[in-house]
Amino acid sequence: MLNHNPISRRAVFRVGGASLLGMSFPQLLAAAESAKAKHRATAKSVIFLHQWGGPGQHETFDPKPDAPDNVRGWYKATKTKLPGVVFGERIPKLAAMADKLCVVRCMQHAMKNHNSAGYYSLTGVAPATDDQRLRDSLDLFPAYGSIVDKLAPAPKGAATFVAYPHVIADGSITPGQHASFLGKAHSPLFVNQDPNRSDFKLPELTLPDNLSAERLGSRTDILKLIDEQSDLLETSLVAQGLDESYQKAVAMLTSPRFKQAFDLSKESKKTRDAYGRTTYGQGCLLARRAVEAGAKFVNVYFSRAIGGKGQGWDYHGFRGEDVPARLDELLPMTDQTLPALITDLEERGMLDSTLVVWVGEFGRTPRISSNGGRDHWPQCYSAVLAGGGAKKGFVYGASDKIGAYATTGQARPEDLAATMFEALGIDPETEIRDKLNRPLPIARGKPLRELFA
């Protein structure tokens, strides 16, 4: 695949400095090509499955079956095809396909609050302080997909960045879900509707009978149309960005191919059932369809809230909450939907070009708390990658005997950010400019090249 971006300014300076030390012009070109080769894409798109609330490593991809009861938790472990590697007891389908997964067991950072850790996980940039009151602001960093839209946009007629079906929040809206200082033109096509509903469809412009897409050529006409159909503003952030990029937005909103991607009725009952008839399950199916239609970065939010019945992964055990009952909902859903997505992509010949990333904002404490659940734990947690050039049947990093700290490897959100950008052929050292015109690298970490063949 072709690289979409020029060599970073820092890379040019490094090569230029070498030439001053006596490197010939042919050697300079060879060095430049070598730097460029580092950023050749292994994937055309990324499906980012954000597990809001923080799934526990012990219950999923890093169980400790030989640890004491208050560490081991409520479940046993399941063997995988990988020697010495076990997954949690309640995810047997994922264990059966471990030879297709790349598991990271050493994710780590220092943010213990959902909003600050959530922002970190959605942007790869740590906030200045670990503050649960962190508020959304144009001073904060853009979402991954917005950066992709800025630097390597999808072809005309497709949305580069798609996000749904929730605006995640813990009290206040969690930052990192839109384009921030890059401008609304790079915010996602955000669909705040449940893809599991029978009437689900893409919010779209309905053109009057006497106005074709070809005639919809002026900004005035478009804004008038939006004003007449103001309900669109409530469901699509692209519509809110029409002032800045109306031609791109209208091309996408009136594209038959892209609109059809959101028509899940085109899928067979067998396929829809395989993903699971849940908001999250159908959302993952929609992600596959969006990628097929040309989207390059898709955010699927597991839930709107961090915890509670039918919500996210936060299982402290407060207020007499039955933690095993909660997990008996969350884990089987994960064990149905993630394997279905990976299998579907593989059967359609799309897995090699689509990088699937499953991760939350942090993990859970190694020991069960006095409240009967597990508390927040960013010091060591798990992420899973599949497809898009990631190694198959590979485990990166290791945690100690109770799953508290990494003993091997280090992977931070900024490293995962750099990894995703590089997989898409975007140099992680590329710079964007904030509201004050200051140059900022799109990733503050290093690509985890050990994860790729």
From TrEMBL:
<dbReference type="InterPro" id="IPR010869">
    <property type="entry name" value="DUF1501"/>
</dbReference>
<dbReference type="InterPro" id="IPR006311">
    <property type="entry name" value="TAT_signal"/>
</dbReference>
<dbReference type="InterPro" id="IPR017850">
    <property type="entry name" value="Alkaline_phosphatase_core_sf"/>
</dbReference>
<dbReference type="Pfam" id="PF07394">
    <property type="entry name" value="DUF1501"/>
</dbReference>
<protein>
    <submittedName>
        <fullName>DUF1501 domain-containing protein</fullName>
    </submittedName>
</protein>
